[in-house]
Amino acid sequence: MAPSGSGGLRRSCHRVLRWIPVIFITIIVAWSYYAYAFQLCIESIEDIGEKITTLLVYHVIFILFTWAYWKTIFTDPLTPLKEFYLSYSDREQLEGEGRGESHQEILKRLAKDLPIYTRTMSGGIRYCNRCQLLKPDRSHHCSVCDKCVLKMDHHCPWVNNCVGFSNYKFFLLFLAYSLLYCIFITATDVRYFIFFWTVGGSFHQHLIQYWDGVPDTQAKFHIMFLFFTASMFSVSLFSLFGYHCWLVCKNRSTLEAFRAPAFRNGPDKNGFSLGLTKNIRQVFGDEKKYWLLPIFSSQGDGCSFPTCLVNQDPEQPAASSRHNSTVKSSAESHHFPARPLRESQTRLLIEGAGQNDQRGTSNPTVTIENET
């Protein structure tokens, strides 16, 4: 067995290594800023009006992009509220039982007053042995962060962070603005790229006057390589951003897209979907003025979610006073303007209810499970 000092050193090395993708992206972005702002805009574009306009638009996109990226990286993933953790006596009782029926009976008793409606694939209560808590709906244990994360989507190495309830909106905006950033660079740089590669012919002779504004081979290299980099990133970002837009419209996380959340009556991949508009508002909130800004505005508290299921779970109360008090205190324990869950649910389930009448509306909350 390795000594504890060796284990601590290994963990420290792993923490440092996990920052390598972030450092790589930061270096690429810093270089792109130099290549575009200085080598292209300042050194190569001769028209003053075009230069000023291009720089202004570029910096607006650049600020939004870096702001969203920063918030995605440094927003801590939220963990379940203290009500979901087992007390010392409950842990002792649970550890004294095996993995059989009695073990599940204890978990069911403990989950009775909590807004837990999802199950494991085998139909049991979701419990995290590592964190010693009853898992809220849509939460999962991240092996990299070593904690349970509310509405976990995935662990992203490019931000060295878990993407979940607290920063999913920031992650979406990061993808959107990084895509816009790359498209803008590609669109404004393509003319100079063509000038560089076009040899001979009247087209080249007609446009060579623009390329003469580029003073040296170094600038030409930056502009050429900038076009290649931006266009390649645009393709991959378009696919990733499109996929997450689809997830938002369906009200699914990446984990739920791979395995449908399981309820008492079985898996249901559309268990959380409340219709396009309400699905979007769950992530971006009600105030549209905040939608395009990396400011937290998502609905709910991350521990409980409305569903469109017709059949309610008879073992769970329709409304728990204990949970209501938990939600009210969540705004104090979390650094986000979390709204009371019941208000969010009422707003989501009542407004535009005609769209979901054929499916029915139901009590709050649901999730998927990696059985641990």
TrEMBL record:
The DHHC domain is required for palmitoyltransferase activity. Keywords: Acyltransferase, Membrane, Transferase, Transmembrane, Transmembrane helix. GO terms for molecular function: protein-cysteine S-palmitoyltransferase activity. InterPro entries: Palmitoyltrfase_DHHC, PFA4/ZDH16/20/ERF2-like. Residues 331-345 have a biased composition (Basic and acidic residues). Belongs to the DHHC palmitoyltransferase family. Residues 314-330, 355-372 have a biased composition (Polar residues). It is found in: Membrane. This is Palmitoyltransferase. The lineage of its organism: Eukaryota, Metazoa, Chordata, Craniata, Vertebrata. Residues 314-372 are annotated as: Disordered. Residues 125-258 form the Palmitoyltransferase DHHC domain.
